[in-house]
Amino acid sequence: MTLAWTDAERALLERLDAAVTSPAAAASIAPVVARVEALMANDPRAPEAWEPIPLEVYGGGLPLVIRSSWVFILRANRASGAERHPNSHQRMMSWRGHGDFQVHDGERWHSHLLVSDREALLEKRWISIPRNMWHQGVVPESDWVVVSFHTVPAHELIEERPSGADPESTRQRRYLESST
Q: Is the Cβ–Cβ distance between 95 and 116 less than 8 Å?
């Protein structure tokens, strides 16, 4: 399953790519990554940790549809577990490391191997995940740092995960309610 991009989506991802890889943004993102790494170090059992990035970091170059940005670190040698965002379209790029960002089509998981090589094609560094699409990160031998963009403000972003044996039952939380 390929998540084909429309011309408009590709143009949006190119704008996000230029904004996030600018020297000023990279310099501002580095301390956020360091803080999230400290969270991970303080809780070795946590599968992931995160922190929002102020949109001002990008110098006003973001499309208006983008309402929040985040650093996530996904723990090495793990799968993050299935989740979806019922209220946001997510666009994510591999910042440091690599991994398999999988999406579910209703029947099975499909792999999207992502790398952090800034010279690699956009399709090898970015993924665009529509609202309500199940996804998970599968991480190899090193923690994987990703930068994510959402269409809702940070305080509104909802994560939904399966709950219990009933595949239709889910639990929700807002990312700002906890950091792991």
A: yes
